[in-house]
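A reminder from the course coordinator: this example appears on the midterm review sheet, so study it carefully.

Given structure:
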């Protein structure tokens, strides 16, 4: 028996034909409201026969392109556009999305580190348990929209956590190709200990074909990042077969595939100070290239520390916040397949 929390479904019935908006109510007793439930907005649109597609954003509350794109989709998409069932969950970690923070202000939970969740756990654990066992488990496809959040900028990319099954991996790559972001980053699940706890691997655990996306960052969204999100979303939904009609979304950019299958592709700050970056996301770098400097403004006369890249690759993540502490990620790089095959680090 699946481990599903005792939620209230308000105004929503996933089996109902047509379009309905409602809430997933997660129980959260507070001084202000002893029988309170957190209202996670959700839209279900069902018509005809076809796959079930879960599209979600707001797993991190300070990532906005997906939330805006899914809000518009929920308002505009009609049952006549749909062949199957689409479930739209724009504020997955609702307390974090309301606060505009990565993690929940209630329990500090990072929803993308807590799957499969716990039915009787903290608020964020209960959300994780419901999303995995109540939504992913009934979905054929899952599209999980992210961005860099407040601390980093991320290249616009589809994200694939490669599945071992060749057919399922091909389906993932088909979706990423349709998504049509400038980059597709393929992660090998073995390289990241937290991958079993993220939405993409949770979706796979429930049998769904899943891809993610990173659409910008720096704690904001721009007209270009929002329009990329909206156009890519239409393209990928059409590829799943859920959209019955045609769409005027432009053809995709030919996505450049990068791999990131090792945990040592990051540059970390080793001291506290002010970070001066030397490159931006999308830059191609080589070993020895200057990555940036950390300045010790509180120690007059002390020279800044230089940081250099130690691998060939494309910068996919760059820290946006200037203040750094030891342990902060300054950069992440991924590899072009040919460079990787030659054994470069
Ligand atoms: Zn995120």
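Designed residues:
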């Amino acid at each position: 028996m699946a481990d599903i929390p005792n939620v209230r479904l308000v105004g929503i019935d996933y089996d109902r034909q047509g379009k309905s908006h409602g809430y997933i109510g997660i129980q959260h007793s507070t001084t202000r409201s002893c029988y309170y439930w957190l209202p996670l907005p959700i839209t279900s649109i069902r018509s005809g026969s076809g796959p079930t597609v879960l599209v979600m954003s707001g797993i991190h509350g300070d990532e906005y392109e997906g939330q805006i794109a899914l809000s518009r989709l929920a308002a505009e998409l009609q049952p006549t556009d749909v062949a199957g069932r689409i479930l739209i969950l724009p504020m997955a970690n609702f307390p974090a999305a309301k606060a505009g923070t990565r993690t929940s202000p209630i329990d500090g939970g990072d929803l993308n580190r807590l799957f499969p969740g716990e039915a009787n756990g903290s608020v964020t654990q209960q959300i994780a348990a419901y999303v995995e066992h109540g939504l992913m488990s009934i979905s054929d496809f899952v599209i999980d929209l992210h961005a860099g959040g407040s601390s980093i900028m991320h290249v616009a990319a589809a994200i694939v956590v490669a599945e071992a099954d060749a057919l399922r991996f091909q389906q993932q790559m088909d979706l990423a190709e349709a998504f049509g972001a400038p980059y597709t980053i393929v992660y090998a699940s073995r390289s990241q200990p937290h991958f079993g706890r993220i939405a993409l691997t949770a979706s796979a655990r429930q049998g769904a074909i899943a891809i993610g996306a990173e659409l910008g960052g720096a704690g904001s969204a721009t007209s270009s990042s929002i329009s990329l999100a909206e156009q890519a979303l239409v393209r990928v939904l059409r590829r799943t077969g859920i959209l019955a009609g045609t769409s005027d979304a432009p053809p995709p950019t030919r996505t450049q595939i990068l791999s990131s299958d090792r945990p040592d592709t990051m540059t970390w700050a080793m001291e506290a100070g002010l970070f001066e970056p030397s490159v931006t996301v999308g830059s191609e770098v080589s070993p020895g290239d200057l990555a940036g400097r950390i300045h010790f403004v509180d120690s007059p006369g002390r020279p800044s520390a230089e940081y250099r890249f130690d691998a060939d690759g494309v910068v996919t993540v760059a820290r946006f916040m200037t203040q750094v502490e030891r342990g902060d990620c300054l950069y992440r790089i991924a590899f072009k397949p040919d460079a990787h095959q030659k054994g470069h680090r």
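Residues 9 and 24 are 5 Å apart (CA to CA). The domain at 266-341 is CATH 2.40.50.100 (OB fold (Dihydrolipoamide Acetyltransferase, E2P)).
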